[in-house]
Design a protein that fits this description.
Blueprint: E1 12-16, H1 17-26, E2 41-43, E3 60-64, E4 67-76, H2 92-102, E5 105-114, E6 124-128
Parallel strand pairs: 1-2
Antiparallel strand pairs: 1-5, 3-4, 3-6, 4-5
């Protein structure tokens, strides 16, 4: 781990819009917003998809411009996702939905294979290693 930093299990944590949409459908009372999960990246996936897209990407490479990230595995969630923050209310149902529907996972971790600049709107391609 680099000095003066803190990473749980990966340098990069990302979540897809598909995962957020799926959780919203499964637990409509909850506010599944990316800021609850504190990702470095939110990756837009096609609307109306099923499931949790990033769970299919372990050991694949995300290519974002010149940046290459190797997906190292799912991100297991904890009570932090249930805490109120700003206008988001405290909601234990957020974690319960993740446990019930996706083995307590939301998002995934990645390591940096090749660094660079990532900009909002950059295309993300999934590559096999």
């Amino acid at each position: 781990m680099p000095a003066e930093t803190f990473f749980d299990l990966g340098v990069i944590h990302f979540i897809t819009t598909g995962t957020l949409e799926n959780f919203r459908a499964l637990y409509p009372e909850g506010r599944f917003e990316s800021r609850r999960f504190r990702p470095n990246l939110v990756i837009e996936t096609a609307p109306g998809g099923n499931g949790f897209p990033e769970s299919e990407w372990t050991d694949k490479v995300l290519a974002i411009g010149e940046v290459r990230l190797k997906v190292t595995g799912a991100c297991s969630r904890c009570v932090m996702t249930t805490l109120g923050q700003g206008d988001l209310p405290k909601d234990a149902g957020i974690l319960k939905a993740a446990v019930r529907h996706n083995r307590a996972q939301a998002g995934a971790y990645a390591s940096v294979l090749h660094g660079g600049v990532v900009r909002k709107g950059d295309e993300v391609r999934i590559e096999t290693v």
